[in-house]
Structures are given as C-alpha cells and as structure tokens.
Amino acid sequence: xxxxxxxxxxxxxxxxxxxxxxxxxxxxxxxxxxxxxxxxxxxxxxxxxxxxxxxxxxxxxxxxxxxxxxxxxxxxxxxxxxxxxxxxxxxxxxxxxxxxxxxxxxxxxxxxxxxxxxxxxxxxxxxxxxxxxxxxxxxxxxxxxxxxxxxxxxxxxxxxxxxxxxxxxxxxxxxxxxxxxxxxxxxxxxxxxxxxxxxxxxxxxxxxxxxxxxxxxxxxxxxxxxxxxxxxxxxxxxxxxxxxxxxxxxxxxxxxxxxxxxxxxxxxxxxxxxxxxxxxxxxxxxxxxxxxxxxxxxxxxxxxxxxxxxxxxxxxxxxxxxxxxxxxxxxxxxxxxxxxx
Amino acid sequence: xxxxxxxxxxxxxxxxxxxxxxxxxxxxxxxxxxxxxxxxxxxxxxxxxxxxxxxxxxxxxxxxxxxxxxxxxxxxxxxxxxxxxxxxxxxxxxxxxxxxxxxxxxxxxxxxxxxxxxxxxxxxxxxxxxxxxxxxxxxxxxxxxxxxxxxxxxxxxxxxxxxxxxxxxxxxxxxxxxxxxxxxxxxxxxxxxxxxxxxxxxxxxxxxxxxxxxxxxxxxxxxxxxxxxxxxxxxxxxxxxxxxxxxxxxxxxxxxxxxxxxxxxxxxxxxxxxxxxxxxxxxxxxxxxxxxxxxxxxxxxxxxxxxxxxxxxxxxxxxxxxxxxxxxxxxxxxxxxxxxxxxxxxxxxxxxxxxxxxxxxxxxxxxxxxxxxxxxxxxxxxxxxxxxxxxxxxxxxxxxxxxxxxxxxxxxxxxxxxxxxxxxxxxxxxxxxxxxxxxxxxxxxxxxxxxxxxxxxxxxxxxxxxxxxxxxxxxxxxxxxxxxxxxxxxxxxxxxxxxxxxxxxxxxxxxxxxxxxxxxxxxxxxxxxxxxxxxxxxxxxxxxxxxxxxxx
Lengths: 341, 552
Prior knowledge:
The structure holds two protein chains of two kinds. By secondary structure, chain A is an alpha/beta fold.
C-alpha cells in the first residue's frame, strides 16, 4: 500500500467526480489502490462513496449513494428496517461487491484492498454472532491476534464500564452482553474509523449511557464514527451530521441544524372559542386537536400564520423546532401529522 | 401466539391464518414444519436406500448366475469374519433374496441407525439450542405436543425410507411380501436410535455434545453386533443391540417377526424416558451440567485456522478414534481371510462385485482401505461444511471486518483440513498395522502407511470439489459435496456391473485408487488427482474472493 508512486494527479481525482454517479467504475487495481501515497490518504475522508449501488437480484438495495464522512466526525445513519443501512456497511467493508460505484475508506478502495482498509477500521455487527465456546476474554485474545495495536488498558477499563464478566462463555451470554463483547473489542482497537451497525440493540439504559460516554471519548480522540441506527435520541445526542436513508436512497443529509431549518416548524395554539380554519394558507398543514386547539406545521416562513392567528382569540401558543423524530417521520410518512399525539 | 401462528402460516394453511387453530391442527402444523426442515436429509437417505437395494440384487444375479458359482461364493464368504464385520452374519447366500437380506439389510441398518440419531438430535436438541423451540412453546403448545409432533415428523421420514428400500427391492424383482419385511427389519433400527438420540438430547446441553454422546452409544451398539458376528460363543450379544435385532428378524431366512417386539419395547422405553426428562427440565438446558464459565485458555487462538482447530478438535479426535478403531479391527481380522478353495475364475467374479482379491490379508486390507478413502473424503466435506457454517452464522462477517484476507481465511481452513485428512490417513495405516501385527499377519508398517497415504489424493480432490461448491453456491454446497462423494463411491461399486462404457466408469476418482497393499500405488493417477485438487482449491479461493458473503 505505501509503495512510492508517481505524484497523484489531482486532475484524475477531479475527473472521477465528473463521472456519472451510477456509472460503473472499471479501473485497474493498481490505479485504485495505490492512487494515494501517504500524503493523499492523509487528506482523504474517513468514508467516501461515489454513486454506490447494490442490487440483489431484482431488488435495488442501495441506489447511487454519495456519502462523505470526514475524519473525526460522528455520522448518524438513519433509516427504518430494510432501508439499506446494513447493505451500506457491508459494501464499506468489502463484504459485498458494489453493483456500481465505489466506496473508499481513507482513500483505500473497500472492495479491492479490504485488508489495508480494515487495518484502520473496527466493526460492530448488527447481530452479535460470536464463537459460542469461547469466553469473552478468549474472544478478545483472538481478535488481538488478528489486529495489531489493541489498547489493553482501555479494554480493561471498558470491561469495567460495561460490567462484563469476561470468563463467561459466549453461548451463556444474553444478546445485550454479546453486544458488549463486540463493542469493547471495537473501541479497544482504537481504530481510526468505527462502523457501528445498530450497536445499542439489546443494551439496557445504563449500558446505553456507557455507550454514549465511550463514543464521546472516541470522538475526543479524533476517531470517526459511522453510527447506523434507528434510535433517534441516540443519533440526536451523539452525531455531528445525519443522513436519512429510505428505500436505498439517501433522502436527506446535513447537520441537525440544517435538517431542522429545512423541515417544518411546529406551532401549537389554543383558542378561547372554536378553532378557526387555517387550511388555505400556503405551506401549512393543520390538524385539529380537540375542539379549540390546533397543531400547525409550517414549512418556510411562519409570518403568514402569525398574521392569521392574530385575528383570533389565542389563549396559548407554543412554537418549537422539529425534533429529529419529526424530521425522520416527515421523510417516511406523508400522513405523519395525523397520527401524532 | 405470534410464534405459533408464524409456524402455522409457514405451512400455508389458510385456516390457520383465519383463527386460532385447534390443538390438533397446531400439532399437525408443527409436525409438517419439522418434516419440511428435514427434507434434504430424508431425500438423501431415501435415495441411498432405494438405489442400494435396487443395485445389489442385480449385481448378485449378474455375478453369480449359476448354483455352482453361488456355492463357491457362499463357501468363501460365509465363514469370512472380515466380511461379516461389515455386513453381519449371512444366513443364506444361495439365493438373491438371502444375499439381499445379508448385504443390503446389513449395510442399510447402519445408515438407518445414523439417520435416527441425526433426526432425533436435530429435533430434540438443535431446535432448542437455536431458540426456535422457545418460540413454539411460548404459544399455546405444550411440551408433549411439541415432542409428539417432532416424533411424528421423524416417523414420516422413516416410512419414506422403508418405502424407498421396498421400491428398490421390487424394482430388482424381489417378492413383495418378503421385501416389505426385509425393509421393515432395516428401518426397525431407526426408532431405537431415535430413542438414543432423544435421550442424549435431554442429557447434553448442546447439539454437538448430544451427537457425541449418541454417536458413542451407537458405536458401542455396532461393536456389540461386530463381536457377536465375528467371535464364536458370544452370539447372545446380538440380543443386546438393535443392529443385532435386525439380523435376528431373519428376513428371507426363516422370518421371526416376534423379534420386532424388541425394537418396539426399546424405543417406547427410551422415548418415554426422554419425554419424561424433557417435561421436567428447564428449557434450553441439559440434565448434564454445562460449564458456562472458565478461566481463559489462550492456546490455539493465534489465527483463524488455529481457532478452527480449537473449535473442531473434539470432532477431530472422534474421527481419529473412529477411523483408528476400525483400522485396528480390520488389521486384527485380516488374518481370517484365506484363499482356501477359491478358484481364479471366482476371484474374477468377486472382482466384479468390487470385492477384489478379498481372500488374502493384504487383498482384504487393500479392499477395505477403499472405505477409508470414502470416510476421509466425507471428513473433508465436513470440514468445508464447518467453514460454510461460519459464514451462514455470520461470524465470518466479523472475522473479515478485521485485517484478514479472504484468501488467508479459506486457504488456512483448507490447509488445516488437508493436514487433518493426512493425520486420519496415516492413523488408519498405523493402526491397521498394529492390528495386523497383534493378529499375526506378516505385513510391513511402510506398506500399510502407504495404504493410508493412498487414500489422500482422492480425499483431497473431494476437499477441493467441496471448496468449489462452497465458493460458487454456498447454500447448496453441503448437498453437492456429500452427494458427489456418495455417487462417486456407489458408481465405482456398480458402474462396471451395469456394463457402462469404461470412460464413464472411470469418471469416479475411486476407480483410480489402487488397492494398496494388494495392488501397487498408482502414482500417475495420484499426481493427476492432486493436481486437479490444487487447481480446484485455488479456483475456489479465487471465486470466493469475488462473491458477496451470504447469511443474514
């Protein structure tokens, strides 16, 4: 990997951007893998996918995904079951082969040079399948043989923090405890990038707190984290940026502030008498809550709504930014405001 | 409720989806589910039963058309302990039916025993270990219902085996009534071994341990029959083992149907006991204590191959023990093969049956070592099946997310399998020599080690074939690999008998294995097979590196 190569052409780099996103990247392995001498890889983002597609038979599981996760960033990857989150991670790890497009970790092609890429990556699988006859301690020892640079002192600290009995065999552990084994092994590796696939499934609330603490520690050390999840509070609390995946497509992406800005604001109003009709205002979605209260969602400016409300006897009014949950539901279910509350 | 409605929906009964099914429908749905789950095994065994019972009578008729040739055959075989070891005590070798009862009944009874054990452990332990039984029992299904449903599924499978064997005999022109009775004698072994497996499943906490325990019991039951058939004065031992009962039923040789009461009583007793134990214990546990905690032992964790060795060492030791024990016994009884009274022409006739020059100790050993080629080839398939399990159970995903190449993972496993196969082959040679020495046969250690090594080219070829199947079609790879080994072996036995063209007969690798020590080692064929094996293994690794991981 670190063979000295002719200076990387930035033109070539730029050219790649011009290619159509769904266009299949057929390129010699030498060019791909050794494109980056150390300096270029220094600047490469932790994750970069270009037009990444995955088709399983007739099903398009992932559709032209363009994704960049910078170094030191915690990226929340949201989507309901079956949206393509795990598929994305499998492509990032080179476990499945992209139908089109490509994925790079630190500038290293995920499919062509998986071993070089994995030296810098740790993974927590969605289902904690491990070797039933090994104890946790033996599992850690096995992983340590396969990866250099495990921080044993930090691992011991994590074992303490997650309250794991390392002498229990994996087959006697509950799902949550097996998940802890995976998490401890991943974080103790001190890998530069952590790919976490629904990592807190099965953890109790106390362990969830321990998990968040560990993520924040990793972030403070400059590690990048790709957190696939559908637990919105977790993503809201931890992530710098969020991507929302739906049916294999990235439908929205940005910081929470950006996503909020683009989404509807919520206003709840209570009137002295019967609630008026406000449906005819543009960009406004109104739901009646009882006889004299309204739940209003406004995309864009709220000036027109305020002006309309001023003509009615308003008793109480609250306005707030949308929660991540609302942003999320907004992307998934057009009729979301009707089922709220 | 959701679990059981799931199980019911899986069987596509519209009634089940509509409302809560009555108890009997629930039990039926569970039984159907279990039957479906076992379909691959049932089909494989039924094919074996049908083909074997069809081919053997044909081969006998073709090989020994006249009374005089049959008399000579009977004289050579009826007192040959070395032959009895495999097929049991012959009662009548002068008729096709008597021959079928001995050769087909004796062989298939052993397979019936294995079928019963596998089916029982799968139904009564593996289902529980995987957590599926918990889902079923969380619905409105009692333990007894679940137990009986599994039993019903196994019973249906057994009936299919019976029908397959009967169909084979009928196709070969044997009389219907006697054939039905002979097939019944064969499958009478199944319920007893189901009982053994069910009991082992109550005792052992894991499927693997249950198989080990049940397998050990089966080995003892087989050994009892072997001793009874080969040692004078201990014929009564036959009354203690289901494999002996199958002989004592004496199909086509003065039938004694009352003996059927023995397997009936034994299986009823074992199954009732197992059901009692199943009803008393905590779900997911065995009666024997499981060690769930242990101080870390850090040996054999340095690489995936070493860790595989660590996980598989129990089964490796069992294989070594089994192969070694059989090799030792073969060595001991090789002495009793004698050439007295056998004409050259008969020897050639014997050759047609695939029995070679059975009448000398080295001829006998040369012939029987073909069974080690078969055994070690099956062992190789089992190693690839273990690799496939690693992928299917998604542990491979975790492994390959580490800085570990697919080439190193699969290559390491194949290399380990090749080493283990070599250990088996050499172990067989060594223990056959120890047995022969103690039996008083003059034969050199080198010669028998050579016989062991002679097993390897074909076995490694099948290892590569299994690896290719795994790389290309992981889900079907087990069926393909085991199927090819079995078909190749049977084809070697019967191909020439069916007067197939020689190039067709020589398609099977078994045709190219010299009967060492009776015949010389065929170096040319061995080199070709090893070369194919190497190319096959490298191709398998190449393909494996280019496909999506499965599972999930």
